Amino acid sequence: MKSKFYLLLLVPALMLSSCTKWIPDTQANIVGNWELVSVERYGPYGSEPIYSEYEYGEFYFGNNGTARYSDNYGQMDGSWRLIDRSDGYHDYYGNYRTGARTSMELRLYDYYDSRVIEWEFYSIELSGNHLVGYMNRFGYDYRYEFRRY
Questions:
Q1: What is the Cα–Cα distance from 83 to 86, expressed in whole angstroms?
Q2: Has domain 24-148 been given CATH number 2.40.128?
Q3: Rounded to an integer, what distance in angstroms lies between the CA atom of residue 108 and that of residue 41?
Q4: What is the pairing mode between strands 74-85 and 66-71?
Q5: H-type helices in 19-149, by residue range?
Q6: What is the C-alpha separation between 111 and 76, in angstroms, rounded?
Q7: Which residues have CB under 8 Å from 74's CB, separation 6+?
Q8: pTM for this one?
């Protein structure tokens, strides 16, 4: 009887300890190769797809904060980092939001060809093999969608 009782206590303990695997670790989930699949610009009259010169390359986010972008023109190297924020902001549709969010900074440089990426996404969404980052630049909001490569 005692052994069944201990077994009964052991099963829930194992189940609860395995639940920690279900808690998302955003940084660990971003590590890997990604491709930029679309960019949309949102303005006063709606959204429109735009072309950025980075749709035909590959982004790599390393687990130590290193980043790389490679395409037919060469390679850019730099860094990326996630920042947990709890301040207010205006989202992609112009609505004011409060609460916790994760933002991302990406900085890549190719000094030889004078190419630079300095992107600051005010919010990111990560779901499986899709990463979406939202950025505000030059009076417009942009939506960058990446897919795991």
A1: 10
A2: yes
A3: 22
A4: antiparallel
A5: 26-30
A6: 8
A7: 110, 112, 113, 115
A8: 0.77
The number of angstroms, rounded, from the C-alpha of 111 to the middle of its chain's C-alpha atoms is 25
Q: List the chain pLDDT tens, one digit each, 149 residues.
A: 555 444 444 444 444 333 322 334 667 789 999 999 999 999 888 899 999 999 999 999 999 999 999 999 999 999 999 999 988 887 777 788 888 899 999 999 999 999 999 999 999 999 989 999 999 988 889 999 999 98
> What count of other Cβ atoms lies within 10 Å of the Cβ of residue 44?
7
The owner of tokens 């992107």 is: 119
**Which two structure tokens, joined as six digits, stand for 11?**
């099963």
Q: What is the DSSP string of 96-127?
A: EE-S-EEEEEEEEEETTTTEEEEEEESEEEEE
Give the count of beta carbons closer than 10 Å to the beta carbon of residue 48.
11
